[in-house]
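Reviewer comment 2.1 asked that we show a complete input and output for one of the modelled complexes. We chose the prephenic acid case, as it is the one discussed in the main text.
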Amino acid sequence: MDLQQLRERIDTLDDQLLNILNERMELVKSVGDLKRSSKSMIYRPEREKQILDRLEKRNTGLLTRSAIDAIFFEIFAVSRNLELPERISYLG
Ligand code: PRE
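Response of the prediction step:
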């Protein structure tokens, strides 16, 4: 593959990542609704760790544990923000 073909494949994967992340955020928003109605805590570090441990076990690719942690650190931050009743607004 040449550079242009590689970049086209990257763009396609980025589109998919964006869709998947938006789909994840829809679910997180529903979790946030449930938590607000049951007055549960938004931040669940034990759940975040469980997700990271599960992904590390399933991982067969190039990502290291610390790379997975770094990516999901940001995803969880956005998720927690989306669960807040009044959000600080980088999500719109
Ligand atoms: C989620 C977000 C915030 C919590 O700290 C833990 C996990 C996530 O993004 O996966 C979802 C969620 O709120 C939850 O599972 O309780």
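Residues 41 and 74 are 19 Å apart (CA to CA). We note this here for comparison with the apo prediction described in Section 3.2.
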